[in-house]
Amino acid sequence: PPLIAVLSTFLGSDTPQAVEQASGLIANLMMEPLARKSAQETNMPLLLSRILNAAPFVGEWAAPDYAVAIVMNFAESDNGRRFLVRSGIHFSLVGALCYKNCKISKESLAWALCNLSMLEEGRRALNSETNVYEGALALNESTLLNEKIAALALLRNLSRVQHCRLLHVPDILEVLLTELRTGQDQTCIEHAVSVLRNLCAQGPEGPQKILRLEKTARGLHAHHPDGLFSLLEKLLLSASDVQAESASAALEHLSLVEEGNRALKRSNMASVLASVVLKDRTADLTASSSRALRSIAGEAEAERLIMSKVGLFKVVDQQQSGVPVQIGVQSLASATSSTFTPIIIGASAVHRVNLI
Questions:
Q1: What's the half-sphere exposure (Cβ side, CA atoms, 13 Å) at 335?
Q2: pLDDT tens for residues 12-41?
Q3: What pLDDT digit, counting tens, does each position of 202-240 carry?
Q4: Alpha helix locations (H) across 201-298?
Q5: Cβ-proximal residues to 178 (8 Å cutoff; 6+ apart), any chain
Q6: Contact of 314 with 323, CB cutoff 8 Å
Q7: Radius of gyration of the chain (CA)
Q8: Which residues contact 100 (CB under 8 A, 6 or more apart)?
Q9: How far apart are alpha carbons 106 and 90 in whole angstroms?
Q10: Predicted TM-score (pTM) of this structure
């Protein structure tokens, strides 16, 4: 039989030292695709679950950490993830993540669960195990940056599942907004705004729930400096395209429900979105910002806002370099790029111009 199959029998040994040595060897071997394939012919997940479940009751023992490493290597492929999820090992991983005094690395547990949640089947299985959210949110409070990143990455994956139970965690919005408001690490901010975007994308239920949480906290005040809309506006204008795209997508979903649309109309968001459309940073950002703008302001007002942002341009041809002139834009589509060819009013020729 394959070496992995032979070694896996030692995982069920009554001798802790034998289990520790076997799990250490397997963790190294499982870095190879052939070993991962062989392991799918064994009952290894059941034995790994036993090790994880025993971890809180055993003293200094490296086997549980090796078990998590095996899971992480196993979950490098969809086939491996599917095999693990169907074995039910996620129950043991979630249990270890939630157990306060468990000596297994919480960061490793979160990344192992994150690997499983890359598969839709894994996300559905974990979403039914509501303790996973409790464990991830507790880890998010860690003062260790790596643990915080792992926790938010797990929440980001899980928030993609339909009917995500994270929506029913009462303080989830405050957790995310606190990260967006005070976070120093760009990866954490990116994960947090992605979670918010994914929750807002949960059909009408998602944005409605988020807006109710915001209304409870701040009365859904459109101009509150620490509020949902103010922070999304800040992210829209951030240097990070990923953060801006997530913020724009969240606003688009929020604008599609009546209460969100009314609140956004009271804010300055339409003007901000018009500016983002004109900057034309990425195709996704421009498209979602344009849809959000039209949803909030209506087609005619959206066009007027974009045209009002065009304003004065600077001619960049050889003869009139640096001379500001008023221009007329041929179409709305022309105004979505910072460099285009409009017709200059009162000029006999068409010039290429740039925004001042």
A1: 23
A2: 999 999 999 999 999 999 999 999 999 999
A3: 989 999 999 999 998 888 776 788 899 999 999 999 999
A4: 205-218, 228-236, 241-255, 258-265, 269-279, 283-297
A5: none
A6: yes
A7: 26
A8: none
A9: 14
A10: 0.85
